[in-house]
Design goal:
- By secondary structure, the protein is an alpha/beta fold.
- It has two domains: 223 residues, Rossmann fold, CATH 3.40.50; 67 residues, Lrp/AsnC effector binding domain/regulation of amino acid metabolism (RAM) domain (Alpha-Beta Plaits, 2-Layer Sandwich).
- Helix 3 crosses helix 4 and helix 5 packs parallel to helix 6.
């Protein structure tokens, strides 16, 4: 890394426009700085521009305008130099199927200029670090999704990059594999590796990230620590009222919308979803109001990064 560099990932006025029958602005003037040693989450709905941003930062896509520097190196002007500081784990498995796990690691090291001895030593280190020693002779097709993801992370950091980009690292993983992946990511901080990840899992971003940025329609909506975003955007408590009788639910929702402390009310399949700025003060009144419709259950979700995300990007499902 160049001396004097205090920002490991620096994105300035980044724009990406795809021309065609329909002009699409995938990234629309994003500014972003990531500090060395951070775990940084980039969040957004499908089509928000986060994967395009990562693709530009990792030299896989050229921007229309703007600038990205990794460890002080301009990724467009000097892509080969920038790649020395970058590790990438894409959303899909890209392990070489014709090579064993050990060989995937070994030849990655050789590609980045390691000698035979250095590549062998580094590969052995990574097999031990990621608990893969017993699977060294296995092929990628023989691995579970969680094991394959660990191998991909190990390979991505084999050349000792300064920044690791993870694109949807938990996609397709079972809960146990997801927790193992989280632990592996947290361990990378001890090695001084900065991690930038995109994810659809709000719990993941909340648990792992020092800071997160929420993007939508190619623009930056908010940035800060998960706790700071919850405080700034007034993350709401969600109270789910399950009803035995849905006839009259619309009228009940209308009445509740004018109640003190209630931010919004939605009618859902089995009852109402009430968003409040703190559930304790209004809970008793909600129970009383819903009782005539046969209140059968109550679920309370405390303020979370997910409520901030939904508040900023909307609740509509997107393809």
């Amino acid at each position: 890394m160049r001396t004097g560099v205090r920002v490991i990932v620096e994105i300035e006025a980044l724009t990406k426009i795809y021309e065609g029958k329909q002009r699409v602005t995938a990234v629309d003037g994003i500014d972003l700085e990531v500090q060395p040693g951070e775990i940084f989450g980039l969040l957004g709905p499908n089509g928000a521009g986060k994967t395009t941003t990562i693709s530009i930062a990792t030299t896989r896509t050229l921007p229309t305008s703007g600038r990205v520097r990794i460890a002080g190196v301009d990724v467009v002007a000097h892509p080969a130099e920038a790649r020395r500081f970058i590790g990438v784990v894409p959303q899909y498995n890209t392990l070489d199927r014709s090579l064993t796990i050990y060989e995937n690691l070994y030849y990655h090291c050789r590609y980045f200029g390691f000698s035979h001895g250095q590549a062998r030593q580094r590969s052995e280190e990574l097999l031990g670090q990621f608990l893969l020693l017993e699977r060294r002779k296995a092929y990628p097709a023989q691995l579970s999704g969680g094991l394959a993801q660990r191998v991909q992370i190990a390979r991505a950091i084999a050349h000792r990059p300064k920044v690791l980009f993870l694109d949807e690292p938990s996609a397709g993983l079972d809960p146990q594999s997801r927790l193992a992946m989280w632990k592996a990511v947290e361990e990378l901080r001890k090695e001084g590796i900065t991690v930038v990840l995109t994810t659809h899992y709000m719990e993941e971003a909340d648990a792992l990230s020092d800071r997160v940025a929420i993007v939508d329609h190619g623009r930056m909506l908010a940035i800060g620590s998960p706790q700071k975003l919850k405080e700034t955007f007034g993350a709401q408590t969600m109270i789910h009222l399950a009803l035995r009788q849905m006839e009259g639910a619309e009228a009940l929702a209308t009445g509740l919308r004018g109640q003190a402390g209630v931010q919004s009310v939605e009618v859902v399949g089995d009852g109402l979803r009430v968003f409040t700025m703190g559930g304790e003060g209004v809970l008793a009144e909600l129970v009383h109001a819903a009782s005539p419709l046969g209140l059968r259950d109550i679920a309370i979700a405390e303020p979370s990064l997910e409520t901030v995300f939904i508040q900023l990007t909307g609740r509509d499902l997107r393809e």
